[in-house]
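Sample 3 of the quickstart, ligand aspartic acid:
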Amino acid sequence: MSETIVMKFGGTSVADGERIKNAARRIVAAHEKGARVVAVLSAQGKTTDQLVAAANEISDRPDPREMDMLLSTGERISCALAAMAIHDMGQQAISLTGSQAGILTDTSHTKARIVEVRADRIEEALNEDKIVLVAGFQGVSTNRDVTTLGRGGSDTTAVAVAAALKADVCEIYTDVDGVFNADPRIVPNARMLPMVSFEEMLEMSASGAGVLQLRSIEYARNHGVPIHCRSSFHDRTGTLVVSEEQTLEHALVTAVTHATDEARVTVRGVPDRPGVAGEIFTKLAEANINVDMILQNEPEGGEHPAELSFTVPRDDLTGALDTLNAIDEFDAVESNTEIGKVSVIGAGMRSHPGVAAKVFTVLGEQGINLEMISTSPIKISCVIAADRVPDAVKALHEAFDLGVAVEDATGDFRPVAP
Ligand code: ADP
Ligand code: ASP
Ligand code: MG
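Result:
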């Protein structure tokens, strides 16, 4: 049987008419080589941000169901326009909403999870030799409402469709050449990684490398979907996300990542009795709030109430504060949005001590205060002041020698100064 390819184009790659036509040309070229092609498109440029802003102008707490009705429109526009472009190139194409494409999700509006992909309608169209365009980032819930999959969710649509079709590859076309060992917008001499393991990519996405949505990596790992993240502006190979056995080297440190879209919540006067933390985090989980780092200051001697701090995505801050204030058992609930997180990731860390020490020393030398720390076997994350994030990323990238190597006059390779 002929090859099946899922090609996903991100917002920048379909930002205007010319770029939609470019994406359409690529899609048509793959189809003309004999592949069965499904393209998943994002909303054009900053459309989703504009829709979010429009909702916030109307309401402080936009109704989540209606938010999803609104947000899902952006990707539909891209798909309809791309289908028109493909028709003009002499091929048959059909655009489908997430719901029409059979993307079934749970009911958690604005961050729904895909529970199943019923791909028969996509299959039918492919069997009729059509190119299928699927609106990314959306689905239909078990309650028959339109849902969206969280920011960056078109990546997950693409991977889920690729898994359902048992596609040969899921190509993620974006505005950078692939996955880099730091965000190239902050570190100009960051290096593209030809291969990265699922484990490392999971940690990278979870700690802020927005180039691939975290859930898309989870889904790809669980269903064995090969991902190729590459540029929509040229034909060079990008980054392959592969199993750990397939990666060539196990670098001590693979990448430095950062996030500036989180907030810290501090709860003062937490009653000092067993089970309180359980109650607090159960309520937060019931409100569908993802808590990341947690820090508890134990009261000395057990007489004074404890203090609890944790980080949440900034989009969840209002929900977290509403949830905690409703408990009404604490002295104060405070929040800080001026925080950032910087992380160092590497599978080699498992077997080499000393990485944490070096991270803390490097940040200390920059005069950067560590507000919270968390670790996994292959990651160290630090919460710092938001305005120090670029300095922290650059300093760590340099300290671990992650810059692009160039041949100098003596024939030796050395990292390029940023
Ligand atoms: P798309 O619209 O194609 O989905 P995104 O904006 O979601 O694109 O992701 C691409 C962006 O991710 C890049 O422009 C880059 O600034 C950012 N980025 C952050 N970390 C990394 C990284 N480690 N490697 C590559 N890009 C990264
Ligand atoms: N348009 C959505 C967003 O901006 C989804 C995506 O682009 O993946 O988050
Ligand atoms: Mg994206």
